[in-house]
Amino acid sequence: MQLTLCPLFSGSSGNSVYVACGGVKLLVDAGVSATRVEANLREIGVDIRGIDAILVTHEHVDHVRGLGVLCRRFGLPVYANEGTWQGIVQKESGIPPKCVRTFYTGEDFYIGALNVNPFPIPHDAADPVGFSFDCQGLRCGVATDIGHINDTWMNAVSGCQALVLEANHDVEMVRRGPYPQRLKQRILSRKGHLNNEDCARALCELAARGTRAVFLSHLSTDNNLPELAYNTVCGALSSAGFDVGNDVRVCVSRRDKVSDMLVLQTDEADAM
Which terminus of the chain is more solvent-facing, meaning fewer CB atoms within 10 Å of its CB: N or C? Predict the structure, then answer.
């Protein structure tokens, strides 16, 4: 048995993550065009017609941009909570009713053999969530668009062998950058995005609970650098006594290209 985790797109221009285990193939979010989602899936050898469902974290456009076309073109089921559905309908009214599935935040559900746990996250959306996935002893999670560290989402992803985790910005780059003050305040707020230092702090704690691989994700184009996020996280892990590359593998998700695929096998996480 193996579980596959692969970010297809990552960042404010669009997000989508491929998750597969136990014969179930899912997308978390579809924040780019349907054509681009289909193309990047094809690049990893996956036919879009084989996708069992799309799970939506929240209604912001960089997470739902391709949703309507994917539903209409391929009839893919879409899972979201009621608050997120209300936000989606305001942007995209053409999703066929047959594709609509509703879950309740905090309540596990199954898609085939894959157990899905939607957990609340602090972000400025209607009812935003992250997801953890469990399948026969294998466990991974997706947690981005997080304003701050709290026990709720940390406990929800505790024990995940692999994570897609936000490292959105460097605080000083935001403060000194060209963004309007209102946007800066939003990014830095407790319902904004997770900065590099907080990502590093969270990952040190999660590594102590069993996380062995991470994709640093949703990096800002203007307020972060891949090498800065990577060095901040790796430096913190090293200072905490972890051997980066052996104890914990750290990758930076690519913005517009498929990231390295991670394949978890029972009791281990191996990057391919």
Answer: C
3-class SS of residue 89: helix
What is the C-alpha to C-alpha distance for residues 56 and 69, in angstroms, rounded to an integer?
A: 15
Q: How far apart are CA 271 and CA 2, in angstroms?
A: 12
Structure tokens at 6: 């692969």
pTM of the model: 0.95
Question: Containing H/E element for 101?
Answer: strand 100-102
* Residue 269 predicted with pLDDT over 50: no
Domain formed by 2-271, architecture: 4-Layer Sandwich (3.60)
> How far, CA to CA in Å, does 58 sit from each of 3, 23, 38, 90, 200?
24, 26, 21, 13, 24
> Where does 65-143 have alpha helices with state H?
67-74, 82-91
* Contact (Cβ atoms closer than 8 angstroms) between residue 53 and residue 76: yes
Sheet harboring 109-111: ordered strands across? Answer: 109-111, 114-120, 129-135, 138-143, 162-166, 213-217, 249-252
How close are the terminal C-alpha atoms of the chain, in Å?
16
Q: Which amino acid is at 167?
A: A
Q: Give the domain ranges of the chain.
A: 2-271
pLDDT digits (tens, 9 = 90+) for 126-151: 999 999 999 989 999 999 999 999 99
| Cβ atoms within 10 Å, residue 185 | 12
Rounded CA separation 268/153 (Å): 23
Does residue 255 contact residue 10 with C-beta atoms inside 8 Å? yes
